[in-house]
């Protein structure tokens, strides 16, 4: 199957006809359809298929038990109304790169794996990279079992309903010990390649980032009859905190976003009793991120006090700075540098990835494919087919350089 036909096959899965965006949330029907697609691609190529204890899917050419495997892949789940490329581009490109290697008659010297990591976006249970975190031992089984979606369904119940065994989840050091290198291809989520005029780049680092939940609790009351002076309205302190987040991020050279909110009782004629806002913040260095979060929390407490509102702040997840393996990065640059038409700039990114999680356990690297607008986590996310094919060829070169004679 060509890149084009694989892409076309996956394109309708989980797409909302209303928004044109994707709703491929972990363990839902759309996610299971994506998983079925992955398995079918693996089996159609005669690869050995397996789903691991954490629900990540693997397709193997050669026996991984030999060790020092080269693995590529990404994820198939999406954010709410996400784009088509974030995740799937890496998985589809992996199968296409394998086809390219076979077409070249390349002989494998190391086992080669393709992976689809489960629940990378954390759209349903609030924590990103659940599959890779569990595998790498960066999420405890107890914490994973406590993850709950907006409808009150826990992760174990969701896995069970999808036919997976939630009691099996946990760290998988033996699996990671068999992998000598993981390379994730991903659509760029910014415009660096567009500005530099390059189709493909190599990742250098991932900014430290995290998610914080701010619970502002006030008092529900009638929107028509309650005097302004008598209100304890948590929406006011929340709104002021959103502006403070923007200010703090701007001052520090960081980013901070309240992109999700839950309001109780959520009635148009009721003063809210609770406003719960989720903050996502990222910065080039840890100390900058600490300053930004400290500043936002301080401002939020002052606004809460001003409006007679209680505030609780919970850090729901955190990923420290990632520096991708220098030796592997240099190896990729050397391999790709041999192609005179392909310049390969080295880029840092504010987006999180499974490759970042695994970088604490095994050598990892990333390739980025140009995104002409830089838009991501939106239906407008894009990459041209020519650039996608350039990405496939670059990935095939990398896999050939690393895993073949
Ligand atoms: O949120 C992120 O950075 C990622 O795309 N999971
Ligand atoms: Mn994403
Ligand atoms: Mn992604």
From TrEMBL:
Gene3D superfamilies cross-referenced by the UniProt entry: 3.30.70.360, Zn peptidases (3.40.630.10)
Pfam annotation, one family: Peptidase_M20
Highest taxon listed in the record's lineage: Bacteria
Any GO MF annotation of the entry: hydrolase activity
Listed SUPFAM superfamilies: Bacterial exopeptidase dimerisation domain, Zn-dependent exopeptidases
Bilayer-spanning residue ranges: none
NCBIfam families cross-referenced by the UniProt entry: hydantase, PRK09290.1-4
The family this protein is said to belong to: Belongs to the peptidase M20 family.
Protein name stated in the entry: Zn-dependent hydrolase
Source organism: Streptomyces lomondensis
